[in-house]
Amino acid sequence: MCRADVQGRTERRSGRLQTAAALSYDRLMEAAAITRQPETPPTTPRPGGMLHRFANPGRFLRLSGAVLPWLAAAALGLTATGLVWGLLFAPADWQQGDAVRIMYVHVPAAWLASAGYVALAACSVASLVWRHPLADLAAVEIGPVGASFTALCLATGSLWGRPMWGAWWVWDARLTSVLVLFFLYLGHIALVRAFDEPERGYRAGAILALVGLVNLPVIKFSVDWWNTLHQPASISFTSAPTMYVGMLWPLGLAALGYTLGFAAIVLARTRAAVMERRIRGLLMARAEQTP
Amino acid sequence: MKVFLALLGRELRLSLRHGADTLAALLFFFLAVSLFPLAIGPGPEMLGRIAPGIIWVCALLAALLPLDRLFGADFEDGSLDLLLLSGQPAAAIALAKAVAHWLTTGLPLLAGAAPLAVMLRRPPEAIPALLGGLLPGTMTLSLLGTLGAAIVLGARRGGVLLPLLVLPLATPVLIFGAAAADTVAGGLSARPHLLLLAAVLAAALPLCPLAAGAGLRAAVE
């Protein structure tokens, strides 16, 4: 059976189910072919707080499908505006000259690398504490995206370091701790995919993600604790930024665009993961029915 | 506490009866260290200068070797389920395993480090700082290794995955340990680095068994 066909059926099936408002959460989960805990009796769960409302894959697909195009368009628009402004029109630095323009690519990537890990850890908490099925899937999908942003941060940092410091790489505290972050992402990616039962991979990955959280304060404060070649932060919550406002605007736009882009990619990947699970469930059910 | 000691005794007896497995890590340590003079030349200035780094990296790698089987045999034959049913918290089981790993791997590595440092032409007055760093360092490595071993339990190719997870977490230990061993040669005090190493150990001591215990629970569930 071709993939689009199965997907179409799944969509139609869930569409029919949406109209039947009386259907309970468990039935819907069953229809979505996500049978997590077959031994639990089919009780009608409490209407639940915000957290569990979004555990319903059907509702998640509907909402995320509505939000995703807007999110992606805003992300592309803001990133493009910020980067074009920064790379072409923003003033050059009085010391660094045009090399400072790498900042508009490098700094948002670095922020997103750390913020992505925070998101991964948040999903891991939801996965360990509430056994939230969507948090499991989201954690698996955040890994490669966060690793890509970290790789982008390291690569652009290396390109920036060559003209400024005269070396592609120096082993100072900031660079080393970001490299460790990259390895933590890679370890998480490898770990969650290394188990035959996906459930087991989610648990192990969640524990690893929470253990790796100790690295984030080290990254943040590495430039303050050690005497590093990497410059300390120019922007903070508690004081005015030490940066010309004509550079701050494109940087802010690019950072916002990166953030929305990160969210859009993760959302799209999580949607794909939910659909994959549905398809696998449907194929398994069909395989069981055929004698 | 009684169960904890009984478990520790069982681990030690097991490693005593499989003596060859226990000594393999130490042998690896000796062999890997003795490759360096062959590879970079026997000049005493160069060797003595980088000896702490060689010993630290090789000790780190050697401590990883027995981790694969730390929980593996118990997991396969079902003793791990029984251990977790023994009434002890899972974290206590993990801590007992970590202590056993340190006694059977960390302590021999510590004992082997001194003669190896002499063979690498390290000045004798710089050796106490190296050993002083290795003492809390190997303890932290045992704790981190137990954590990694518990997480990868039941994975395909867990043995390959394990170093990928443990080595990034072990970088602070390596940095402070090698720095402590290095400062003495430059005439500085090793104290701040040793205190930082002890701080890392103090943080790992409660946290690693907790996380490892969660990993064990997830593995048998």
Description of the structure:
The complex is a heterodimer of chains A (291) and B (221). Mean pLDDT of chain A is 82; it is low at 1-42. Chain A has helices spanning 3-19, 25-31, 50-53, 57-89, 103-130, 133-165, 173-192, 198-212, 215-225, 245-289. Helices cover 73% and strands 0% of the residues of chain A. Chain A has a single domain, classed as Up-down Bundle (Four Helix Bundle (Hemerythrin (Met), subunit A)), CATH 1.20.120. Chain A is globular and about 75 Å long. With 291 residues, chain A is mostly helical. By secondary structure, chain B is mainly α. Chain B has nine helices and no strands. In chain B, helix 1 (2-17) crosses helix 6, helix 3 (44-64) packs parallel to helix 7 (127-151) and helix 6 (90-119) packs antiparallel against helix 7. The radius of gyration of chain B is 18 Å and the shape is elongated. The chains are: A mainly alpha (291), B mainly alpha (221). The interface between A and B is medium-sized, with 24 and 23 residues.
Taking pLDDT < 50 over at least 5 consecutive residues as the criterion, the unreliable ranges of chain B are none
Major sheet attributes of chain A: none
Measured as a percent range, the helix fraction of chain A is: over 70%
Task: Give the strand tally of chain A.
Answer: 0
The largest interface is: A-B, 24 and 23 residues
**Tally of distinct domains of chain B:** 1
Q: In percent, how helical is the residue content of chain B? A: over 70%
Beta-strand percent range of chain B? under 5%
What is the terminal-to-terminal distance of chain A? 18 Å
- Number of helical segments with 4 or more residues of chain A: 10
- Terminus-to-terminus distance of chain B: 25 Å
Question: What's the SSE pattern of chain A?
Answer: HHHHHHHHHH
